[in-house]
Automatic annotation (TrEMBL):
Coiled coil: none annotated. One of its GO terms (biological process) is Mo-molybdopterin cofactor biosynthetic process. It comes from the Bacteria. This is Molybdopterin converting factor.
């Protein structure tokens, strides 16, 4: 069985390609077995493959998930956070988007305002210069865009269900300079306490589950940054 596997961030750099055409002889093929086969076929990347997650049809897949020839497969490395040109992709309602252009915070806020809501918040994540003694000059973000949009939409639905909140999220990809916004989350709720809770939940869940990767560009070079929380936390809950 031949399958095509999408690769991202440092894993794509190590293997030297953003996709693989892989032939698997074992049927049925599970996500766990695929990782074993890939690790054996690409020993230089085995440690990265072992720490990665399989996504099947844009959902994180436990090890026992079955992969078929028609499956859309991606290997998601445990890092978080473009190319030249303009990229803007969004969900059909326009509330969740991925773009390589500066994010319009005012528009996001306008998207969530409600005459029956008395509280609204904008969370804006920006590029900072110093992390400890390390000086950053810029960040570069990469995303698995279709799955990222789906996961952002899931966050918005959960925020709505738990706090009766309106939510809109936009994430930047490509090069993001100092003080520029990489992610903006807009929230509105009837009361301020739930607004704070919903906003905090949204950014923490984004860091856990949305396939976006961050490369730190600094005076000594550049490297992909490990995330604080691994996506494995979410799929085993």
């Amino acid at each position: 069985m031949h399958i095509t596997i999408r690769l991202f961030a440092g894993l794509a750099e190590t293997i030297g390609s953003s996709s693989l055409s892989f032939h698997a002889t074992e049927i049925p093929l599970t996500a766990g077995k695929l990782k074993e086969l890939l690790s054996a076929s690409y020993p230089d990347a085995a440690s990265q493959i072992g720490a990665s997650l399989i996504a099947v049809d844009r959902e994180y897949a436990p090890d026992d998930s079955i992969i078929t020839a028609s499956s859309e497969v991606a290997l998601i490395p445990p890092v978080s956070g473009g190319e030249n040109g303009t990229i803007y992709e969004s969900t059909t309602d326009g509330l969740y988007s991925i773009t390589d252009q500066p994010i319009n915070a005012e528009k996001l806020l306008d998207d969530v305002l409600d005459v029956n809501h008395g509280a609204s918040l904008l969370f804006i994540g920006t590029t900072r210069e110093m992390t400890g003694e390390q000086r950053t000059t810029a960040l570069h973000y990469e995303a698995y865009i279709p799955m990222a949009l789906s996961k952002l939409e899931e966050i918005g639905k959960e925020v709505k269900n738990r706090w009766n909140a309106n939510c809109a999220i936009s994430h930047r990809i490509g090069l993001v300079g100092l003080k520029e916004a990489s992610v903006i989350i807009a929230i509105s709720t009837p009361h301020r306490d739930t607004c704070y809770e919903a906003s905090r939940f949204a950014i923490e869940r984004l860091k856990q589950t949305v396939p976006v990767w961050k490369k730190d560009i600094n005076e000594s070079g550049q490297h992909w940054v490990d995330s604080d929380q691994k996506a494995t936390d979410s799929i085993h809950k």
